[in-house]
Write a structure and sequence with these properties.
Layout lengths: L1 H13 L12 H9 L2 E5 L8 E2 L5 E2 L1 H14 L5 E5 L5 H6 L5 E7 L2 H6 L2 E10 L1 E6 L13 E5 L4 H12 L4 E5 L3 H9 L5 E5 H9 L8 E3 L7 E8 L3 H19 L7 H4 L5 H6 L6 H4 L6 H8 L3 H8 L26
Parallel strand pairs: 1-4, 1-5, 8-9, 8-10
Antiparallel strand pairs: 2-3, 5-12, 6-12, 7-10, 7-11
Helix pairs in contact: 3-9, 3-13, 9-13
This protein binds glutathione.
Glutathione binds next to strand 5, helix 6, helix 7, strand 10 and strand 12.
Length: 339
């Protein structure tokens, strides 16, 4: 009881904390503070990642990633604005400064990191290229796709992964390149291609929104590339890069310690050193990144741990956690020590 009271008092003291004054050491952070919102690029068409709900609120893992940045910088996860970007224009929009962060299922590749003046702050979701076919096609393996017409977005990493896969297996394919995601899906449904290829998560989400008709589509078992979906920022603002990267680690560290949106206030009474630093009870962790020391608390309280985000966004779409488990549970997500 005593511990609970202590936690409640602490939680009150933590609520509504002010944001840091100007002078974070990051031009992007300063601009966000001045503007009062974080601008994020999303697709707005991908269930589980970014799709507006019936109230028009953007939902998904990518959308929540944006919210963690708002929670960290502004102390308020609601202060986000989502800018719809396409597979092709997303990089130019980030380069041009129309958004602060690109959270749009964007695969981390050498070419993108080396050529665009942009950097990947971390991996939000470990994915891979998949193929969706109609159940009536009778196709059960990607190896049966020799000579197939493949619907794919131009400028996507999928386009390159598909080309590599077919070449490696001495198979031919005919790319049907369509920019607009709704149009790609339409073309696939209309039979203009034999298979629709993109990130397996995107295909699972697309199949999911078919509802009763989901059974008409089959996600082939082969995952033919690594597609680590990351979060991009402009090069040249190392402080902001660090911050965005640590907003990602906060969710993982919270999950490691069993912290959730629901129990984070009780955790304010914890004596576990890393939890205390994570919540800003001791150490100068936030300041080192140009934000308030309670940035971790705000993220967990307002958006949640990675497990919370997964539960809210990905579980309904039916994608198994797989590689996206924590490192100590057989997955790949691993955060450095918060100290
Ligand atoms: N991870 C791929 C994404 C591929 C992509 O953009 N696919 C299209 C066509 S399905 C799309 O709009 N996806 C929406 C999304 O992934 O949120 C990349 O970085 O290139």
């Amino acid at each position: 009881m005593k511990r609970f009271l202590r936690a409640s008092v602490l939680a009150l003291a933590f609520a509504g904390s002010p944001v840091l004054a100007q002078g974070s050491g990051s031009a992007t952070i300063d601009a966000i503070v001045k503007r009062g919102e974080v601008l994020c690029g999303t697709s707005g068409v991908t269930p589980g990642f970014s799709l507006p709900d019936s109230q028009g609120v953007m939902r998904g893992l990518d959308a929540d990633r944006c919210r963690t940045v708002a929670a960290a910088v502004l102390g308020d996860a609601r202060r986000t604005r989502f800018v719809i970007t396409t597979t092709q224009n997303r990089f130019t929009i980030l380069q041009g400064g129309e958004i602060d962060v690109l959270t749009r299922a964007v695969t981390w590749t050498l070419g993108r990191e080396g050529n665009l003046g942009l950097s990947f702050a971390g991996i939000n979701f470990y994915d891979g290229t998949g193929f969706l076919v109609k159940a009536t096609s009778g196709i059960t393996s990607a190896r049966q796709l020799d000579g197939a017409a493949v619907c794919v977005a131009p400028g996507s990493s999928t386009e390159l992964a598909v080309a590599d896969y077919f070449r490696q297996h001495n198979m031919k394919f005919n790319p049907v390149l369509i920019q607009d995601t709704a149009e790609i899906r339409g073309a696939y449904l209309a039979g203009r291609c034999d298979t629709y290829s993109t990130d397996a998560s995107g295909l699972a989400g697309y199949r999911f929104i078919q509802g009763d008709r989901a059974g008409e589509h089959v996600l082939l078992p082969e995952v033919v590339s690594k597609e680590p979906l990351g979060v991009m920022v402009r090069k040249g603002d190392a402080k902001f890069f660090d911050l965005v990267r640590w907003t990602m680690f906060v969710g993982l560290i919270a999950e490691e310690h069993g912290l959730t949106q629901a129990n984070v206030d009780q955790a304010l009474a914890s004596n576990v050193p890393e939890i205390r630093r994570l919540l800003g009870l001791e150490g100068d962790m936030g300041r080192a990144l140009g934000v308030d020391n309670r940035f971790g608390y705000h993220i967990i309280k307002q958006v949640g741990s990675y497990a919370d985000m997964w539960q809210r966004n990905i579980v309904p779409v039916g994608i198994p956690r797989g590689l996206n488990r924590l490192w100590n549970q057989g997955g790949l997500h691993y955060a450095p020590p918060l100290r």
